[in-house]
Amino acid sequence: MKKLFPFIKGYGVRSLLASLTIIAEVIIEVYIPYLMADIINIGIETGDIRFILRRGLFMIFMACLSLSMGALSARFAVTASAGFAKNLRAALFYKVQDFSFANVDRFSTASLITRLTTDVTSVQMVFMMMIRTFIRSPLMLVSATVMAVRLNAKLAVVFAFAIPVLAAFLVLIGTRAFPRFKEMLRKYDGMNGEVQENLIAIRVVKAFVREKYETDRFIDSAEAVRDAQIKAEKLLVWNGPIAQYVLYLCMIAVCFIGGRLIIAGDMLTGDLMSFISYVTQILSSLMMVSMIFVSFIMTRASISRIVEVLDEKIDISDEEADASLTVKDGSIEFRDVSFSYAKDGNNLTLQNVNLSIKSGETIGIIGGTGSAKTTLVQLIPRLYDVYGGSVAVGGVDVRDYKIETLRDSVSMVLQKNVLFSGTIRENLRWGDPDATDEEIKAAAKAAAAHDFITSFPNGYETELGQGGVNVSGGQKQRLCIARALLKKPKIIILDDSTSAVDTATDASIRKALREELRDTTTLIIAQRITSVMDADRIIVMEDGTISDVGTHEELMQRSEIYREVYESQQKGVA
């Protein structure tokens, strides 16, 4: 929890007030049985009705004051814990935003969502208990014990046996329950992952009539979560009965021993009544402490998962970068570059890549599946860092730029086209938040998107569903290209971003790009050779290396890989 305390910032006063008011409540509550003893010992024994009324009214006042302090404490604790949870969620979200692709690869999406929601909620509840119950119960335990000892030290010896027994059981339960709760959360991640995958791919599920299969998968995951929960809770359910057992044994012992003391004349009746009240307070506090202990056990796994994200070392950092550096042009140079997702020299995805691209050039990249085309271009905006060698943009190593400066100069349309909830106009303005309507339309026209946008009843104000589910794959690709064009980058990377459009539209987009991006370095990854054949140069990749580089005509003459792909595609056209 120490690592989470900084997130109390802004809510420290409320947290402190929650603790102070609960302390006041405890002090008042502990004082009330003392007043009751006076009523019995003095008022009832002497028949002094006025004394009974005065003390009775004072007890009512103290009870109301205690209630008020408790209510205030609850209010402060709720607002403080909600603020703490807000800060913690924000910190986790900001951390994830700083993740490199390599960091993201280490956590599943479902796991990150669970940590931001379920785990934070668990920690929020524990934090609220810490600033209220965790203070109230020990303080009540100590205060009531002191008062009980003042009333009768001999009778208070009962607690010397009860407390160690209960503590031993709590420690035993806690040490065995933690790993079970950690396993339960892992199963929870798996279930969330399957739900997320199913919802994202719901159209595919329905198209292949796989609803029953997906339902069965979900039931299996839900049952795995249930079984893990039962396994963990089996230990914790012993907490309540053990605490109750100790409580009632203490009550029996106090009543038996106290009754004998009254008969012997060593204790007053009112003192025994007050002592029983203190016994109830003490043992109730012990039960609350045990509940806190159980909550900590349940939440410890959540805390460790949250801290795991907060402590994740960011693979890509620009702390030593020169903030004054700007990207002067779109030239790119790969110098003996090697790359490994596993950061293992024996498992290289790219090896010995040397390539020089002039500013303003249009470069086509083709190659078979798994030839590392996408990996190559992801090194340019530093989405990943090289394992060996270096990548330079504008004549400067990409590691010397501030990440924001570098990525502001590079637009990338990824293989998986992603749109966000909101209007088409709002989505396009991701490229440039300050873009005018004319600039938005110009970018849409260049991406061959303007015509289909204006065919919608609301045009550019058309609301897109989550992920752009209400537009076709080709329309989604064109919107993503338009968004990238609005950025007015020095380098634009199109990663198989026209695969879902027809050849005529593809040709129209390429023509517009040549006209609109004369000074912009353009890299086009494509499966269709027609998409890259008019590029200044074409890179042929094979097994993580550059097999050949040249124009369409040059590669047709000397590259067997290129020629085979071209001829196979031409036969397909024929």
The unreliable regions are none
| Number of alpha- plus pi-helical segments | 19
Biggest beta sheet attributes: 6 strands, mixed
Proportion of residues in extended strands = 5-15%
Q: Using only CA atoms, what is the Rg?
A: 35 Å
Word description of this protein:
The structure is a single chain. The protein has 574 residues and is an alpha/beta fold. The protein has helices at 12-46, 49-98, 101-106, 109-131, 133-151, 158-200, 202-207, 211-236, 239-263, 269-310, 373-378, 403-408, 424-428, 437-446, 450-455, 473-486, 503-516, 552-558, 560-573; strands at residues 332-339, 350-357, 362-367, 388-393, 396-397, 410-413, 422-423, 463-464, 491-495, 521-525, 537-542, 545-550. The longest helix is centred in the first third of the chain and has 50 residues, at 49-98. The two termini are 68 Å apart.
Give the helix/strand layout.
Layout: H1 12-46, H2 49-98, H3 101-106, H4 109-131, H5 133-151, H6 158-200, H7 202-207, H8 211-236, H9 239-263, H10 269-310, E1 332-339, E2 350-357, E3 362-367, H11 373-378, E4 388-393, E5 396-397, H12 403-408, E6 410-413, E7 422-423, H13 424-428, H14 437-446, H15 450-455, E8 463-464, H16 473-486, E9 491-495, H17 503-516, E10 521-525, E11 537-542, E12 545-550, H18 552-558, H19 560-573
Parallel strand pairs: 3-10, 3-11, 6-9, 9-10
Antiparallel strand pairs: 1-2, 1-4, 4-5, 7-8, 11-12
Helix pairs in contact: 1-2, 1-5, 1-10, 2-4, 4-6, 4-10, 5-10, 6-8, 6-9, 6-10, 9-10, 14-16, 18-19
